[in-house]
Amino acid sequence: MVLTLFFLALVYFIFIAVLAYLGVGSLVLLIIAAGALLLQFFFSDRLALMTMGARIVSEQEEPRLYETVVRLCAIADMPSPRIAIVKNQIPNAFATGRSPGSSVVAVTTGLKDMLSREELEAVLAHELSHVKNRDVMVMTLAGVISTAAFFLFRSFLAGGMRSTGSREGGGKGAWILIPLLSAVVWAASFLLIRALSRYREYAADRGSAVLTGNPSHLASALMKISGIMKRVPDEDLRKVEGMNAFFIVPALSSSSIFQLFSTHPTVEQRIEALSRLEQELGSHGF
Q1: Residues 137-155, mean pLDDT to the nearest whole number
Q2: 246, 254 contact by CB (below 8 A)
Q3: Is 127 annotated in the active site?
Q4: How far apart are CA 255 and CA 243, in angstroms?
């Protein structure tokens, strides 16, 4: 994870340095990056809940979920998030929010109905680990310059900054390099951010295992969820594919591409890691 962040920072540093050398004002990039950051930072949770049609529920409505979440949060020494329910038979869960104090953990009705109490606890512990690790904030910050590069590329394609380039110097040849550089930076950062996302999933799996003390419960939940997912019609999966980065198991349709572009490790890889972790916890007497 640290190595991935290092390479991501290196790509961003080179990008900014070359833009400065070519005469692109740092204010332009700063405005683009700041705008992208603010939008993602303050509205990603609302957009995620709205996209899934999630509804915040009270403790009276879902006492079992609240009891489990409050207990796990006490173990993790973190504030309890709000809880939301999604009326959807596709079994899944996700967490969103820019900080532990403003987070929401959501589960679908399909997930609640399918999992045992221990498996549901393990899934909730996974999502709470995302909250504890501030993964939404980490991934948002990781993608800021990538988003700026994308919009810079778009603006140059539209010719919106051509006149600015002729005034600021650097020549036509240099300004042809800027959209190409932006495209390369976006592609490289896209792959690195996806790799970082996969590492964050491993970290959340580990957090769940430590909180519950039983990695096999999460492994069992992952197998059940992925098994049901394979039987869900492609049309239904496509409706929720936009939330794949948030889900505990991506809703992959038949059009999904190579693992290199995935936000999650495969279920088989995660179960293998949980199996090793169970042996590690057992050897330490947990």
Answers
A1: 73
A2: no
A3: yes
A4: 15
CA distance 149 to 216: 42
Question: Quick one: how far is CA 231 from the chain centroid?
Answer: 24
Confidence check: pLDDT of 180 > 90: no
Please pick, among 119, 121, 127, 201, the residue that the annotation labels catalytic.
Answer: 127
CB 92 within 8 A of CB 108: yes
- Tokens 């996209």, residue located: 51
Pairwise CA distance, residues 74 & 197, whole Å: 26
- In the chain, % helix, strand, coil (3-state, to 5) comes to 70, 5, 25
Indicate yes or no: pTM above 0.85: no
Lookup: tokens for 250: 């991506």
pLDDT higher than 70, residue 210: yes
Band (115; pLDDT cuts 50, 70, 90): very high
- Measured between its terminal Cα atoms, the distance across the chain in Å is 26
Query: Counting every residue, how long is the chain?
Result: 286
Distance CA 127, CA 106 (A): 9
CA distances from 44 to 50, 112, 222 (A): 10, 24, 25
For residues 36 and 151, the answer to whether their CB atoms sit within 8 Å is: yes
Sign of CA dihedral 2, 146, 95, 262: negative
What average pLDDT does the segment 176-194 reach? 81
Looking at per-residue pLDDT, the higher value among 152 and 193 belongs to: 193
